[in-house]
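Subject: for your reference before the review

Hello V.,

The reviewers asked for a structural picture of the protein, and I figured it would be easier to keep everything in one thread rather than splitting it across files. Below is the amino acid sequence we used in the manuscript, unchanged from the supplementary table.
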Amino acid sequence: MTAPLVEFRDVHFAYSDRAILDGVSFSAPRGSVTALMGASGGGKTTVLRLIGGQERAQRGEVLFDGQDIGRLGQAELFAARRRMGMLFQFGALFTDMSVFENVAFPLREHTALPEALVRDIVLMKLEAVGLRNARALMPSEVSGGMARRVALARAIALDPELVMYDEPFAGLDPISLGTAARLIRRLNDALGLTSIVVSHDLDETFRIADHVVILANGKVAAQGTPQQVRESIDPLVHQFVNALADGPVRFHHPGPSVEEDFGQGGGA
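And here is what came back from the structure prediction:
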């Protein structure tokens, strides 16, 4: 079997004394869409930062194509990053640049291609996301869904092997959300990408994912196909995939019982 493009091996990470990942191990198979899910604050975006080398694991290995990202020097890390694309939450387009210039930015920053070739590549990437004829518009002139598609065109401008998506569906209406999801799946298959999608939209994400990883309490609570995760008997996973208000993640903040609190005669 082909080795996974991304692999976490017993990864530990903390911000100061607050543990985020506690012995996390999982892999993202090549050519697949891997969904990374879990409750807010569970470390999903931290995983993306570790893959990109913005953070370094305190223990364990974060492997990209067999290389431990935490052990790479600056030049090697930058070379690895050029093989990755990133779609940030809400797109993060440069507001003072047109749609065309946003997509052209990584090509001009990381290559010495002639301007005529840059133009052709930009138009091809915009065509892939259905926005070739929006090239002259400014970010303020496009909708939220369109902005997300422009950001995706920018993410694939350098033909990366890995594309990471941080909450690609946040704030989108149902039509734009469905369009974005289908686009992620279609581009992954058409371009031979490996995709890691951080999302809270369970139904749409399960629909496009090959592999799902659920993070909870700093660990991997479940991983497998969407169907396998849906059938998990882990109480936290069951609560998450069924959107239950109560379970291991409590609706009420922990503290004294109602009887104890109201029996104290008032006061905060």
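For the response letter, the relevant points are probably these. The chain is about 35% helix and 25% strand. Residues 166 and 198 are 5 Å apart (CA to CA).

Happy to draft the paragraph if you're swamped.

O.
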